[in-house]
Amino acid sequence: MRPRATQYNPSVKMTGAECLLRTLLKNGVNVCFMNPGTSEMQFVAALDRVSGMRPVLGLFEGVCSGAADGYARMTRKPAATLLHLGPGLGNALANFHNARKARSPIVNVVGDHATAHQAFDAPLSADVPAFARTVSDWVRVAGSGSEMGSLATKTVEAALGPPGQVATLIVPADFSWNEAGEVGGAANIASRARATTGDLENAASILRELGPAAAVLIGGETVVDAGLKAAERIAKGSGARLFYDRNTSRSALGRGRFAPQRVAYFPEKAEAQFKGLRHVMLIEAKAPVSFFAYPGRKSTLLPDDCAVTVLAGVAGDGIYALEALADCFPVPKFAFERRDRVHSVHSQESLTTETIGRAIVFHLPEGAIICDEMVSSSEAVVPLLGMANQHDFLPVTGGSIGQGLPLAVGAAVACPDRKVVALEADGSGMYTLQALWTMAREKLNVTVVIFANRRYRILDVEMKRTGAGELGPLANQMLDLGRPDLDWVKLAEGLGVEASRATTTREFDDQFQATLKANGPRLVEAVL
Amino acid sequence: MRPRATQYNPSVKMTGAECLLRTLLKNGVNVCFMNPGTSEMQFVAALDRVSGMRPVLGLFEGVCSGAADGYARMTRKPAATLLHLGPGLGNALANFHNARKARSPIVNVVGDHATAHQAFDAPLSADVPAFARTVSDWVRVAGSGSEMGSLATKTVEAALGPPGQVATLIVPADFSWNEAGEVGGAANIASRARATTGDLENAASILRELGPAAAVLIGGETVVDAGLKAAERIAKGSGARLFYDRNTSRSALGRGRFAPQRVAYFPEKAEAQFKGLRHVMLIEAKAPVSFFAYPGRKSTLLPDDCAVTVLAGVAGDGIYALEALADCFPVPKFAFERRDRVHSVHSQESLTTETIGRAIVFHLPEGAIICDEMVSSSEAVVPLLGMANQHDFLPVTGGSIGQGLPLAVGAAVACPDRKVVALEADGSGMYTLQALWTMAREKLNVTVVIFANRRYRILDVEMKRTGAGELGPLANQMLDLGRPDLDWVKLAEGLGVEASRATTTREFDDQFQATLKANGPRLVEAVL
């Protein structure tokens, strides 16, 4: 006998919560990262009545939103998140912001007070849609239990885009416990727009004519094998420069793969990369801009007289555009750029971001997934990744730190057979360290490396760049993560993750290798 | 020679950031809880050029917003917060939500991209005012450097209300580094509205006539000695029942003080407290409602035919109303309710929330400040507090957990000569455990007690109440904080706070006492 759907009213055949769950499952949404509260208890209870959903608990909502982002980047399909009212959603916003910039599909379910209760300004009352709109262009509030199925289908449709987004469905508690209507149907996903043959042929002539004074900038979902192979043919056939958006949500890197240049973080470097360009073709990327503005500096990065053509917008079919464009050049389909392995580190070398990077690159297993939140340490490490075994690279897409560890949770849930390597700055890691507990509970196959420079190091640089002047003692304290030093080994162990500390290159090399052999999460704190 | 205001443009005499800082200081705002980024570097640099502001770093923004709330509750004046763009503000929202419900004055300064940069959808671009409006009814975006001073004054005015609120000033980075206008003037704070003599005399006759069928419900800033003394005279003189809002941001409790009944959390209990009431006078409180709605239950708690009179709204002068009302009753001004001390615990007793509560109450030093986020454990502890030495009690006002530890930071910064005791559930503590690091850095005089029941225990209750049915194995996992168990001793030590674990009543009693003698933060994990 099936357990009753509700204790409250045994005549209810299928609650709204069950209907929502069934509709999500019907649409292939079968992982839910959650931190539920009272308003979501019906959904939680339904997990045992409707089989197929894997619930993953985060001890802070930012873990859930970041994990859903990581999951979406690796699977290209949405996970659900289940969050509690306005403030619970509030805690998830920073990583939803990153997910929004990554254009990751996410079905974000948020409970609200029962409709009749909303007029009373109870303590947890808040304007839930207002919280949601900060990160979601698609926000709906369920208006009845009977529409739960159709609305859930629409939420999946909105999440999947293209290009993909955080779609938020707000469910007042009474629609979760009341009788629902029919289970929703299959989501109807819009197709991606394709460039016309004329546009592509025109682009090909421009590239052919301008050669290295032209460039193709790719992003979105194109920085994968199919896109890179086509990009290589275009580069070879036209002589044009090939770049990829530094905020691309997932990039395929490593030896044997064509490597477009990654657009630099600081504007001077990016401007140097783009120097002399007269025309840029954009494919699932936007014209590059500076991350921050600085006094006396413009925000755009391309030369002022550089023309821009969009061959595929962010919702367009970039792989099609790349392959069709490549077909305009009569180039054999062999690869021309192959890199050596990096040298292993010597135990006499001191421990620096560069030696850490070399050790990681030397040992990185084939098929690894790197979650990069190294911030100031990344510039020493990322350029080496082309010499590593082939892997996927997931950066912080929206600049909001606290993303790396949750992203690793989601990537590991999505790809249980691959090693996830989270490269994490100490300052950034602190925002969402609760993710380590979820790694432990779910026995996720994650190696975390903490780059412990004990400082918001990037702000030393940014302080100078914004013309804020010399760093006085009080300002210095605000950039300093020491006094007291964080002990990441204890923090990890406190959250159930085995951990060790490396203060020399040899220790790091040994410890990092050991983590790769382990099944389940491990953390190495590299003290710089 | 004064250091230059800027490296960018030495002709700038006073930057917008300096002007903002000077205006805040002029208005007595001299503590700033911050987690700044690039857009706020000018403000950070200005800390060393303009003396008087105490900057306190939080390693997560929710620490800053919760600390500003705790500071405001104890000082009745605003601290500033300094946060980084939309997502940084996003991380602070849950505790700003609590601060909003507490009606705490806070000057919330948020940096945004420079104005010319805002059109470019850079990675960190977001709709900052939209984030702010979720918790702030007063949101302004600086429109020029020259208005920084006057706008800062207006922000202080808005924050102080009455009754007090989170007032948000968004500052585009260029207005921080450009030349400012004049330093702003002194804030002009509106006065609180007072009840008329006629209203008060009318209320007095109703109370006199109805006696125990009438009640006075107080809240806001009235649950302090002056208000309690007047409340006692009203109770004695009229026979009316006296209650206080359970979400009052700060309540004076302890032996020797009159103790109105605290409105219960669960609606059945609250309804029992209010049974038979025919008229309720509200003083800085609103008509009580259920925290959550449950199937088949109404949200209001007073009897349906109970009349309600507002003698002081939340922005009204409640102390005036209480004292004027008390003067209507010819009662001597002696106290009539005095309580015994609690019994000390016996080492043979097992460790329960009740024995922990007794030990805390027995040892609590005079003048302590309790930050309560015990959640399911609170019902065993809070009723004992009337037997403790006199103290202030700060609850979670908006129901958003993750408030207790940050609140303790703010209370300890506000009151360095008093012992702050943060009573914290393990689940709630995990949301903002980064607060422990700030306690360590600032050497704050805080004792943290973790009630480690290793479960979202309150949800076991709420699951039943919402009629969600029996707890199946998957649902059970979502309420379970074990597998792996959190180790709060390691977490605290990892964040620089000395800690110990108690598994028996004797251990708890000894360890708790020891923390009270220490200078600086200590944590005791009480394993239930």
Key terms:
homodimer; Rossmann fold; 18 strands; alpha/beta; 17% strand; 20 helices; 528 residues; six-stranded parallel sheet; seven-stranded mixed sheet
List the topology elements.
The structure is a homodimer of 528-residue chains.
Chain A: H1 16-26, E1 31-34, H2 41-46, E2 54-57, H3 61-75, E3 79-84, H4 85-102, E4 106-112, H5 128-133, E5 138-141, H6 148-160, E6 166-172, H7 173-177, H8 197-210, E7 214-218, H9 225-238, E8 241-244, E9 251-253, E10 261-262, H10 267-274, E11 279-283, E12 307-312, H11 318-326, H12 353-363, E13 368-373, H13 378-381, E14 391-395, H14 404-414, E15 420-425, H15 426-429, H16 435-441, E16 446-452, H17 457-465, H18 473-479, H19 488-494, E17 498-502, H20 505-517, E18 522-527
Helix pairs in contact in A: 1-6, 3-4, 3-14, 8-11, 9-11, 12-20
Cα distance spanning the termini of chain A: 60 Å
| CATH class assignment of the largest domain in chain A | Alpha Beta
Q: Decide which structural class fits the backbone of chain A.
A: alpha/beta
**What is the radius of gyration of chain A?**
24 Å
The CATH topology of the largest domain in chain A turns out to be: Rossmann fold
Q: Write down the overall mean pLDDT of chain A.
A: 94
Q: Which overall shape of chain A is indicated by the principal axes computed on the Cα atoms?
A: globular
CATH superfamily of the largest domain in chain A: Thiamin diphosphate (ThDP)-binding fold, Pyr/PP domains
**Assembly annotation:** homodimer
Largest sheet descriptor of chain A: 7 strands, mixed
Number of domains of chain A: 3
The CATH architecture name of the largest domain in chain A reads 3-Layer(aba) Sandwich
Greatest chain-chain interface? A-B, 113 and 112 residues
Q: Could you tell me the number of beta strands of chain A? A: 18
The number of helical elements of chain A comes to 20
Strand content of chain A: 15-25%
Q: Estimate the helix proportion of chain A, in percent.
A: 25-40%
